Every structure is written in structure tokens, then in C-alpha cells.
Amino acid sequence: MTRRSGSRQLQKIGEILERVLKKKGIAVPMKDVSLRELWDRTVGPMIAVQTRPERVWRGTLFVKVSTSVWMHQLQFLRDDILERLKNQWREETIERLHFSIGPVGPAAKSTDDFFHPTARLLKKRDKVMIEESLAEVRDPELQDILRRVMIKELSRRRYFEHHGKIP
């Protein structure tokens, strides 16, 4: 058996096991769910949906990002996010953020500030009005797009009416 060249520093068995399981495609629960919750609070619901913190290793927080566009945008916010994380995360020192594109999965929890439109919020008269408005549109693809836009906008209005907020 040949000796492996490179770092002779001992590694934690948990880190080795995590890498092996990840290579095999086996889902490994994050060491600390509080990191995900902290991340979601720090960056807000819009960014949290597009990102997922993976781990802190040697002072670097590794974060998966859904697309290159989001990754580019996060580069501009990096210093601000890092400063907020440093002030709140006490378990390990976070000195750097590393973004990479990858699957982000669902957010840890939904927040009330983030609006999720749903057709359930629509009243019967809203649904009738949408269908009457779309009756004149002949193109089925355009009709479908307009239906989704109208449902989203009317649902947003009903949501704000219900929660007493002004859109």
C-alpha cells in the first residue's frame, strides 16, 4: 500500500464520513440546524429560498446557490452578510463565505413576511372575473400566462386585505 502524499494533519472522523456519504449521494443532515435558521434570518426570505448553507470548515461558510445570477448578486452582498453572521454565530469563527452553484432544496421554514400567492385566497367573484376576462383571448398559451398573472395579483390583494396591510 502506498502512502498518500499531502497534508499529514489529522482529520475529524465526522468530516471524513460526511464527505464519503455526500459522494455516495446519501443525504447527511446538517451538523447544526441553527446555522440554517441563522442564515435564513440573516439573509431574509428572498435570498434564503435561493441558497443553502452547507457547513463551516476552517473559518469558511460554504453556501450552495441556485443559479449563477444569484451567486453574482451575493458577491455584492458578501461583506454585509459576513458581518451580520460574525455578530450572531458563536459556535465557530466565520471569516469567509464561499458560494457555489448547486441544489438548494426547500427553505428550512416559511416566514410570514414572504408572500406565497395561492388561488385559495380568491373569492368566487374573482374567479368569475378572471374567466370572463380571458374568454376573449384566443391563444391558449397566452391565456394560461394571463390566468396565472391575474391569480397571483388578486391573491396578493386578498392576502393584504386579510392581513390589514396596504400593498
Tell me the β content: 5-15%
CATH topology of the largest domain: GMP Synthetase, Chain A, domain 3
Would you list the SSEs in sequence order as H and E? HHHEEHEHH
Instruction: Give the second-level CATH assignment, the architecture of the largest domain.
Output: 2-Layer Sandwich
Q: Average pLDDT, to the nearest integer?
A: 78
Overall geometry comes to: elongated
Unreliable stretches, pLDDT < 50, 5 or more residues? Answer: 107-114
How many individual domains? 2
Distance from first to last alpha carbon:
68 Å
Count of helix runs? 6
What class would the helix/strand composition place it in? mainly alpha
Number of extended strands:
3
Strand order of the largest sheet: 1-2-3
Q: What value does the Rg take, in angstroms?
A: 23 Å
